[in-house]
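Minutes, project check-in

Agenda point 3 was the complex the collaborators sent over. CS summarized: two entities, 590 residues total, and the question is how they sit relative to each other. Sequences were read into the notes so everyone works from the same version.
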Amino acid sequence: MTALALAVRGLHHPAGARPLVLPALDLAPGARLVVRGPSGSGKTTLLRLIAGELSPAAGELRVGGAPWSALPADARRAGRFGTIGVIPQELTLIDWLDAWDNLCLGWALGARPQSAGMEARAAALVAALGLPPLRGRAPRTLSMGERQRLVVARALLPGPGLVVADEPTSALDPAGADAVDAALRASGATAVVATHDPRLAGDDTLTLPVGP
Amino acid sequence: MIPLRRALDRLRARPGAQAARVLAWGLGLGLPAMVVGAVAAGGDLLRARAAAVPMVLGPPGDHTDLALAALRFDGRIHGSLPAARATLGPRAEALPLRLGHRVGSTPVVGVDPGLLRVRGLRVADGRPFVALGEAVAGARAAARAGLRPGAQVQPAPPLHHDLAGATPLVLSVVGVLAPSGGPEDDALLTDLATTWALDGHLHGHASADGQSGAAAAAELAPGTFLLEEARPEDLSQFHAHGDPAGLPVSLILVHPRDARAHDQLWAELSLDPSVSVVRPAQAIEELLALAADLRDLALLLLLPGTVGAVALLALVERLAAEADRAEDAVFATQGLPAGAVRAIRRAERLLVATAALAVAAALAATGPLLLVPWALHR
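CS then shared the predicted structure for the full assembly.
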């Protein structure tokens, strides 16, 4: 029996005006869950709980069958690379690295040894997402759309089994959004995508309730 | 290697801010060290010079000025002594100096030829001065002005606004001294008679028939010309009016034969109201004690500024840390190890600290080299 990519039980966590409550959620490998809801409904909080950036006030999250939320914060941080790809809403890039090293961030900082395979995967992602040549290019010279596609590529490059994406197409035109949609599907990763973009369809949709 | 390489990337990405950090820390540490080092080095140099001059005789006046005039060839000494005071008998060798003339910033010092022997001065290039109008250049003065044997220089008139005053005599450089560490290194040495000629106490003139081209320019009276250069064929024309024993000297370096002669001379000269006598070593110690007090006061006055600068730097560092937080969020979100990021920041701080220490060390080292010559020869 294949383990669930993500299983949530009895999740309860403060989030804005009302607590985020999620009694149960199961995602099979490769599935995509689209999370919708108004601002302040807890979409970003849910993604950060899944990514392990936050510890839930109550309840349990399991990733690949392992008790993810029970791990200490440092262990979750260390375990995230290559396991959970995070596409944050903020398009922050490291300005003292060139755009290519921002894409290959984990390798540029020595978290993983450089390899020909990684280079090939990175080049493929650059092509798939329609990014310009990145080597030697200063991040500040990228447009917002290019930055967002770069942030998506950065999350997918380590080959995570689970991807959490917070508004991954907010700065993109339709072609760019289609490219991101296709890249997410091509990665084969289970995806939890918080978005207001109707173009991003999921296998399932979770709509978080409005206000208190 | 990766932390160091990435730290260099961080420095290159913000060159202005990082240079400001380096300079701020470097100046903060280096300037006090420069002041302390310059005072100490200047003091050591003055002590060494003072040790070579047992006693100085000069016109009545401030003892510190007299000592400094002897040790720096500073011409701002007021008054003079008659040349006859340089006769102290067998108890001491008396070496009169005439100060006050300059070629640009270089003092022209009239000396007794015995000074070269007593000071152990050696002519490295050329020969010693022997005739009126000849001079030898100190090693640093020669290097600074590009002087070699055969060069000619013209001292500035002693009084720029005295149109009726002495006409400067052209000096011929006949030798360059080897470096000695003394004030001679920065001076042009000539004989007393030449400085008297520069004063106007001694001059040469020739009739219109005898004057020869550029050597004579100023017309004293119809058909009589003042010589501006002491050419060998004109030397006999130079003469003084009045008693040569009364011609002025600025000060007299006194080298007593022995300790007994020293004490006797000191006692006698100290009681003579027509002269000042000073032991440079003693005067310099008093001056350096005052300089040390001034240095301490300066450092004390710098303290609030230093505290303010440190507070400002702390603010700068804190703002830099705030700016790093956005990066830290990216590293954390992407699951990158905190240790790797910390190693890069540590390497960056190490590079900044190393550069700042290099700036501070350069200031501390070059400060005395620049400030001491400036203070001693200005």
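Noted in discussion: The mean pLDDT of chain A is 91.
Follow-up: revisit at the next meeting once the mutant set is ready.
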